[in-house]
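From: lab user (bench 3)
To: helpdesk
Subject: output format question, protein + coenzyme A

Hello, I'm new to running complex predictions and I'm not sure whether the block I got back is the full result or only part of it. Here's what I submitted:
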Amino acid sequence: MPYAHITGWGMAVPEKVLTNADLEKMVETSDAWIRERTGIRERRIAGPDEYPSVLGARAALKALEVARLHPKDVDLIICATSSPEHLFPATACLIQDAIGASKAGAFDLLAACSGFIYAVHMAAQAIRSGAIQNALVIGAETLSRITNWKDRNTCILFGDGAGAFVLQASDRPGGVLAAVMHSDGSGGNLLILPAGGSRLPASIETVTNGHHYIYMDGREVFRFATRVLAQSTLEVLEKAGLRLEDVRWIIPHQANYRIIEAAARALKLPMERFIINLDRYGNTSTASIPIATCEAVEKGLLKAGDKVVFNGFGAGLTWGALVAEWSGPLPSATRPIHVERYRPLARLRSWLRRSIRRLEGLIWGRKA
Ligand code: COA
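Helpdesk reply: Thanks, we reran it on our side. This is the complete output you should expect:
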């Protein structure tokens, strides 16, 4: 049975920064309150042309570059997102087209902020079964478009961004070692987007009467999160036959510093063992774990051979954890790809395909 290794990683965040001081001008809040209750200082906000697929494609190409894999070598794309542009087509398909992954199947996975863990697990299982060789897993969000900027309970928390992993089959032991997934739909109303997607016209406000915004019972979600983060970590380690001492890093979903602190206390681990960057990005839902991972690799913290636990929780309610032995690019990966050179080619290919489809439509239309 092949092993599923994480061989590439990439992230993309919008340039625009929204600080707590900016939020003070929008709702009745303060920098001190937000920092004390959440640990967040600032977050990124998508520009007018930035959607989950745009950020997701950028992160995906970077991940492929690290793995030294061409987009056309990808067999499967799973995009975990809580703010898909549309219900369909899937954001994963938009990314597939944008990067020119012409041989890949693509679908979205909706498990809210736990989505990235679920998606990596699904991709790893597809590789372990022998069904596929190479997978791209993406977490991509423009939560700013489904955030009610008049609701101080929620608007201080969320941010935009994307992160991606490449998973590849190899006979070498390591990679994804175990995962656990849980859900409890009875808490579905605690964190909910009643209607719509993230690419709606501004006029939608009058149609949905505000139901296309996130609604949250913060206190209940907080209670739930502090309970499951430590629990799922211990559960996944038991499943992998590992002890907490074997783990070098914990990379949690970046929702709230106090939630991570509570998990650290429950696990009796120092905060230094947790990778945390929520102060600069806020809660980017499915993107938070891969973004934190990318920064940890960039800083030289996460090294090949390190055992790392990823754990998350979110709307659904859902939660889960995954333990992996960090791999780095496979030794057989030799083909360098250059992201900036590849992107115009993918755009050209996409334009050609669309033109051919139109031409075929015209020809068949005339014949009919
Ligand atoms: N600025 C200032 N005051 C605020 C505020 C803000 N942005 N948001 C809420 N408050 C007020 C509340 O209205 C409340 O006032 P009241 O006592 O007069 O009613 C007070 O602060 C305390 O509210 P409370 O909800 O108890 O605060 P909290 O310590 O639980 O922190 C959250 C609120 C939202 C930060 C916290 O509950 C949380 O992080 N929950 C989890 C959310 C999450 O992670 N969601 C995503 C999951 S993937």
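A quick orientation on your result: The CA atoms of residues 362 and 368 lie 10 Å apart. Let us know if anything else is unclear.
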